[in-house]
Amino acid sequence: MGGDECVIVVREFDPRKDIASVEEVEKRCEVGPSGKLSLFTDLLGDPICRVRHSPAFLMLVAELSSTKEIVGMIRGCIKTVTCGKKHSRNSKTNDPMEPLPVYTKVAYILGLRVSPSHRRLGIGLKLVRRMEDWFVQNGTEYSYLATENDNQASVNLFTHKCGYSKFRTPSILVNPVFAHRLPVSNRVTLIKLSPSDAESLYRRRFSTTEFFPRDIDSVLNNSLSLGSFLAVPRGCCYTQRSWPGSDKFLSAPPESWAVLSVWNCKDVFKLEVRGASRVRKTLAKTTRIVDKLLPFLRLPSIPEVFRPFGLHFLYGLGGEGPFAARLVNALCAHAHNLAKEGGCSVVATEVASGEPLKVGVPYWKRLSCDEDLWCIKRLGEDYSDGSVGDWTKSPPGVSIFVDPREF
């Protein structure tokens, strides 16, 4: 390779001329290990689809100065989230015992790709540093990213070369969508919340949860958000018809309740499992045929994942009370049926590794990820509220709020 070819120019992505080149790099990067199953992503012709719903976003590409060939890319977005909590000092306007969220401006890095033929040339590091420059210019206090625990190249780049530290290890839980509907317990009443009611409930009960987005209203009112659903024990005074609104509900809640919202990833990107043997594909197809012909048996079937498929993401999962996990299970059954009606093959969620409501979420271990590694970096020493200090050194909380715009 000549010296001129190694001169890398990093610039902003131009949708008018870069889409085809970016898609080619994506394809070259998604070559799975020989003989093993691999997951591929189809961005449906929109390279910035996974960041465009955030308040601020940017995509950069790296190209060779001599040939103008694109050999790498990175995406980033900025938002304001909860990084901790403090107690109010003004007892006249706030309950001094009720914690208040401490917000920080945070950036998220995703979609870093470098063409296999141009790796180990410092391109990835150059892309990250240019993206971080943009973060700092926009007043961002922290930058974080998610990567697979066993992706040693990615972990080494960010922790050894870019100054990131391992921060959180949430679990990605994935459940197939069967050909039959899942029954929702007759001991549970489900209530669909309006976006404003959902916002009120989330702000009052979950705003101190780590990574809770301050613009939760934008998330809930987005066209990709298919609804927020509340589960309460059947027989309590709350039903869809008698629903009084979140404020009155929270002033006299039942002993147990749970909530979650559904995000339509199918219209953003599609996934595909490649590398499956003919035997495995035939077995999967057989389970679907049996499930379709005999739905009353409720046999678990493997959905069509060997062609591009869509998914729904469950976010904002939370609840209170001794039976909250059971109510979460009912909500997940309802979300499964919504995904079935929407033509999706799987439903997924991401929760803190120690989340107590995790036991109520059905998932297939083989499709899921026990530890999704989140790494974080402090971009400025003059930031952060005194009650939180350096967020990168804080212990993990019980729960975490995963923004569906970044899944």
Give a nutshell description of this structure.
By secondary structure, this protein is α+β, with helices and mostly antiparallel strands. The chain has helices at residues 19-29, 123-137, 152-161, 195-206, 216-220, 246-251, 278-293, 324-341, and strands spanning 8-12, 38-42, 56-64, 70-87, 99-114, 142-148, 165-168, 171-176, 188-193, 225-233, 257-264, 270-274, 311-320, 346-351, 372-378. Helices cover 23% and strands 30% of the residues.
Q: What does it look like?
A:
This protein is an alpha+beta fold and 407 residues long. It has two domains: 200 residues, 3-Layer(aba) Sandwich (Aminopeptidase); 195 residues, Aminopeptidase (3-Layer(aba) Sandwich), CATH 3.40.630. It is 23% helix and 30% strand. It contains eight helices and 15 strands. Strands 1-3-4-5-6-15-7 form a seven-stranded mixed beta sheet, sandwiched between helices. A six-stranded mixed beta sheet has the order 8-14-13-11-10-9, sandwiched between helices. Helix 8 links the parallel strand 13 and strand 14. It is globular, with a radius of gyration of 23 Å. The two termini are 37 Å apart. The mean pLDDT is 91.
CATH class of the largest domain: Alpha Beta
What's the end-to-end separation, in Å? 37 Å
CATH architecture of the largest domain: 3-Layer(aba) Sandwich
Helix content: 10-25%
**Broad structural category:** alpha+beta
How big a fraction of the residues is strand?
A: 25-35%
Strand order of the largest sheet: 1-3-4-5-6-15-7
Main β-sheet: number of strands, strand sense, barrel status? 7 strands, mixed
- What is the mean pLDDT? 91
Q: Spell out the CATH superfamily of the largest domain.
A: Gcn5-related N-acetyltransferase (GNAT)
Low-confidence stretches: none
CATH fold description of the largest domain: Aminopeptidase
Number of helices: 8
Shape: globular
Radius of gyration: 23 Å
Order of helices and strands: EHEEEEHEHEEEHHEHEEHEHEE
Number of domains: 2
Please count the beta strands (DSSP E, at least 2 residues each): 15
